Amino acid sequence: MSDLLIRPISTDDHAAFIASRPSASFLQTPGWAAVKGEWKAESLGWFDPAAPGELLGAALVLYRQMPKVKRYLAYLPEGPVIDWDAIDLGRYLRPLAEHAREQGAFGLRMGPPVPTRRWSAKTIKDAIAGGQQPRLGDVRPDVIEPSGATVIAQLHALGWKAPRVGEGFAAGQPQFVFQVPLGGKTSDDVLKGMNQLWRRNIKKADKMGVEVSLGNIEDLKGFHALYVETAERDHFTPRPLPYFVKMYEALTTQPHGCCDFRLYNAHHEGDLVASTIWIRVGQHSWYSYGASSTAKRDVRGSNAIQWRMMSDALESGATVYDLRGITDTLDPDDPHVGLIQFKVGTGGEAVEYVGEWDLPLNKPLYTAFDLYMRRR
Prior knowledge:
Elements lengths: L4 E4 L2 H10 L11 H4 L4 E9 L2 E15 L6 E5 L13 H13 L2 E6 L4 E6 H10 L12 E2 L1 H12 L18 E6 L5 H7 L2 H13 L2 E5 L4 H15 L6 H12 L7 E9 L2 E11 L2 E9 L8 H15 L4 E6 L11 H8 L4 E5 L3 E4 L2 H13 L1
Parallel strand pairs: 4-5, 12-13
Antiparallel strand pairs: 1-2, 2-3, 3-4, 5-15, 6-7, 6-14, 8-13, 8-14, 9-10, 10-11, 11-12
Helix pairs in contact: 7-10
Protein name: Lipid II:glycine glycyltransferase FemX
Pfam family, one: FemAB
Family: Belongs to the FemABX family.
């Protein structure tokens, strides 16, 4: 089979293609380019030479310029949106590499949305309690996805390489995430799948009078104030308010309704106790950002707002509720394990993806950029 043709497409065609898919990452919607305004961006489409009018795949490509040189790292976060079950992925990836090279890219990075392994909540809980396996990757998975191994083998054969975990500019989108499967379930099924503590906290929030409602762009100020408070408490660097305003404006105005973006607020007696950002593309929904107040934690606003988002995801037709990234640590003494335990309480599963892969197009420049990023 000959390679597919690749060329720039309009944002309208890009959004229409995303909207036609069962699911795709919101990081691959054309609106994400506006969120990442410091990167040069383009929408690309793949076409069959025999039927050049039919769009077979799409990608949002972000170009990050190398310091002092007009050469770029071409980055496809959680993409591209192609047929990852294809017998020959090279039909898609060879023309992508050639196009990126023509645009001045010294390297390509992409994150195939292809899972490799899954661990149930019980398996993770037992592993933490046992204390014998400090890393999730060391625990026997409940499910091994054959498609993951196939994609990895093809990427190796095509010259792509897995980045060094945690080094240089290797840290991009998370390789391990936590998801709650929703397909074929009722809200009662999802609730029953949670652990006793989660069910009790959801019930307590309701009894205490916590009210969860949808917010608008004006409510982002309240969200951000709570988010900064959360960052100080949990020791991470918060994003500025304009970033979230840009995200709201960009993702709520995309054509063809390819992305559903919502802000949720949980109030108790007039006080904002939790606020979150929820996103859905097709059948995949995400808990993207969350914030909660230090005061009134006993009213369990965080549990109430999560339950509302899960319920709305189920009602909207989503088959996955994605709580995004987790580290792979299972060490009970590691401070990060608390986040895993919180998510495990939902009764979902940890999912490992194939991760982000690199294709050096100009090895000296690629090596120099990697060294620069690791020294920052």
